[in-house]
Amino acid sequence: MSTLSLAVRDSTTMLRRNLLHARRYPSLTLNLLLTPVMLLLLFVYIFGDTMSAGMGAGADRDAYVAYLVPGLILMTIGSTTIGTAVSVSNDMSEGVIARFRTMAIHRGSVLIGHVIGSVLQSVLSVVFVGVVAVAIGFRSTDATALEWLAAFGLLVLFATALTWIAVGMGLISPNAEAASNNALPLIFLPLISSTFVPIDAMPGWFQPIAEYQPFTPAIETLRGLLLGTEIGHNGWLALAWCLALTVLGYFWSKSVFDRDPR
User: Fold this and answer.
1) Cα(162)–Cα(248) distance, rounded to whole angstroms?
2) What is the distance between the alpha carbons of residues 184 and 45, in angstroms, rounded to a whole number?
3) What whole-number distance in Å separates Cα of residue 260 and Cα of residue 5?
4) Taking the complete model, does pTM exceed 0.70, yes or no?
5) Chain segment 21-49, per-residue pLDDT in tens
6) Residue 49 is inside which H or E element, if any?
7) First CA to last CA across the chain, in angstroms?
8) Are 43 and 51 in contact (CB under 8 A)?
9) Distance (Å) of CA 95 to CA 99, 114, 165, 167
10) Distances from the Cα of 244 to the Cα of 121, 196, 261, angstroms
11) What distance in Å separates the CA atoms of residue 9 and residue 89, rounded to the nearest whole number?
């Protein structure tokens, strides 16, 4: 069997294993998924009128729902990938990886299975949050089929990038609790981005922190694709962040995985 065929076969097996684990132990995924849903409901129904007043004249709760949802969708991806960090850490600390290393399987298939499984879970989580958003009034304005396709591609790229980073965090963590703590920036960063309020409404000293991070350009690009707002240079920045984080996460994870004796 060729190296490529072996890699595909073993990666498929590892993907099936991870999906079975997610089905048998859904509590972690549900807990992480409920965070963006609860934030969505909280900011729409509790803070919606107040937050929309800060968006300018004529803005109402419906306008704030449209503004909020793209950021919450990307926050959902960040939440879902925390489960990946925990899953990878469990595999490393419980000795499963050590056993896999003694078997005649493609070495990278273990990590690839985790990554593909996490991306699939992220897409399903985004669909769920999207359904909740539509139920409370979110509507996409005049988005074409090409823009919807571009939005889906952005979400998959972003999920892949964050998943590789989460895999690296899981590999360096001694246990599941540490992995969950190490991956907290994947939830914290959206809180200090343009998810909830425009960057212009933030204090001047804080605006660079919110602007120069991976979530903000991705959020603004998704808003532009779904709502017709100006994308500007955010599209290229979002793509650059996705590619940079994917490459960084891949080589970081591969380096740690190859040397970690656990």
Assistant:
1) 10
2) 26
3) 26
4) yes
5) 666 666 666 777 788 888 888 888 887 77
6) helix 48-53
7) 29
8) yes
9) 7, 16, 22, 17
10) 22, 25, 28
11) 23
